[in-house]
Structure formats: C-alpha cells, structure tokens
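Protein modeling request. Please complete all fields; requests missing the sequence field cannot be processed.
Requester role: graduate student
Desired output: 3D structure, token encoding
Chains: 1
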Amino acid sequence: MVDSLKKPGYEELRPGVKIPAKDTILTPRFYTTDFDAMAKMDISANEDELRAILEEFRADYNRNHFVRDAEFETSWDHIDGETRRLFVEFLERSCTAEFSGFLLYKELGRRIKDKSPLLAECFNLMSRDEARHAGFLNKAMSDFNICLDLGFLTKNKKYTFFQPKFIFYATYLSEKIGYWRYITIYRHLEAHPENRIYPIFRFFENWCQDENRHGDFFDAIMRAQPQMLNDWTAKLWSRFFLLSVFATMYLNDIQRYGFYESIGLNARDYDIEVIKKTNDTASRVFPVVLDVENPEFYQRLDTCVANNAKLSEIAKSDAPTIVKFCQKLPCYLSNVWQLGRLYFMKPIESAPVATVR
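Delivered output (357 residues):
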C-alpha cells in the first residue's frame, strides 16, 4: 500500500503525526476566560441543582465505556481516497473540539478551586470526560496511520478570550449540539448498520450522554445567574451564538458532504435535523431562539455555501493576489449580508425561564 493512499495529502510534523489544520473562521477554537470573575460568581440561587449534577459527574457512568474492542483490530485500508481523507478530517475536527473543552475545563478547575470548590470539581470531572473523548478520537486516527500531537496543539493553537457569560453561551451550545450530532448519527446507523464503516460509531450513544450532562451543567450555571438570560442584551447574544454555531456547522458539513454520504446520510438533511433539535433544546434556557422552521433560514445558508465554494476555487487559481481579492470581495460581502439577514430575522420568544430560588 503506497503512502499516498494511507495518508493522502497530509503534512506531517514528524512521521505519523499530522500538522494541525490551519485556523480559519470555521475551525474549532481554543478558549480562555476571566478566571477571577468565574471564581467570584454567586451560584447559591441554583446550588442544589449544581450539586445534583456534580453527583452525576462523580458517578462516572462511562468510566468503562471508551475501551477499544476486537472490532478495531483490523486493517482500514479499504477506506481510501477521498472517503479516507474526509473521515480523518472528521476525526481531527472532533478530536480538536473535544481537546479544546478538556483544556478549558481543566484550567478552570485548577484556577478556581480555592474560591469555588463545587464549580472547580465539576470542571475537573468534565475535563476528565473530554480527555477520554479526545484520546479515543486520536487513537482512531492512528488506525489510519496518522494522529495529532495534542501537546503541540496545546502550545501552538491560538486562544480566544471570552468573558464568562460568553463562555457559558458558547459551551452550552457546543455540548448540546454535540449531543444531537452524536445521537442522530447513532440512531441512523442503528437503523442502517450496513453503513457503519468504522466501529467508533457504536460508542456514540453513551458518548453523547456526557455531552448532554455537560450542557445541563451550563444550563444550571446560567439559571443561577438570571442577569445572563433576562435582559434585552441576552436576547441579542442568544441569537448571535445560535447563529454562529448553526452556520459554522452547516458550512463545514455541506462542504464535507462526502463523509456523510459514506455513512448513508444526506449532509443537508442531517444538519437541518440537528439544528432544529438544538434550537428546541436551547429554548428551554435562552430567552429567544432562531426561526429555523423558516425555509429562508436554509436558503440563505445555502447561498453562503455556494459563496464558500467560489472562494475555494479562487484561492486555487494562479491569479495575482490583488485580482484574487477583487474576485473574493463579492462573496465576502454576500456572506455578511446573508448572515446579517439571518440574525435580524424575527426570533422565536421562549417560555419565560423559571426563577431559581
């Protein structure tokens, strides 16, 4: 088997270790925050629920789940060409996102343990979960003769600073959309086992329950801080983060439709289902959500997909840089216009968030 089949187009740090994907607006991000502000938060309004969630984390339902079995012990060279490239890319993006959560939660647990031991323990136990997820995904990459150097990622990835309020919005949605992504793939492959091309998908049912519990934790944190949910700015930020998460997923997945085809899914239909489920879940805590039942929502995202395809083609051309910029500008402006129109679409008011006493 030639190297080009085993590792199609991968740039390596050293043999078998992939150079991480370049940072773009659509790649998974690493986050940092104001740790002192996080430590000073008053969570007494919802402490009982947070303690109940902590007990679930301590129970560690998946302690024996992420164990590779005999089904992994085979050659995967029959997954080749474009399918192999897209599958490794899926594993890499998933691993990077999980590792991002591990780093953030681990640092939060370390930095706030003296002032907020309850929250610190929750963050430490969530970091345990995310480390398992990232390690399992990275080991899966090694089945395709490539992996990530997570230590290199830690030192070289750019970190985005978010205030605690925005960390909560972003991580809540990340965990909940992760739940719906995993469970939707799992249920599809449960009904169509002939499309399960690799054994990692068997682990998604239990795996997504970790994501769900993490999301519930951030739900409880936000409801302990009613000012995060009950003013007019909360409505604006809710719409911003929902649109950011939905658009990022949609643009990434439609661009990589071949991966979803390989497991028997239509990428667009899959994303629409995940978006609707996540939006409905978010309505239980966010003051407003997006009107994702409106066909215009996906029509405008499809325009962005088409624009991104044009941008990729322009980037591959041999035209001078200034010519490329002039060619790209209409696509950039169109994307801004489409996303702006989506942001200002009339949102759906959620039921009032229950006051926590």
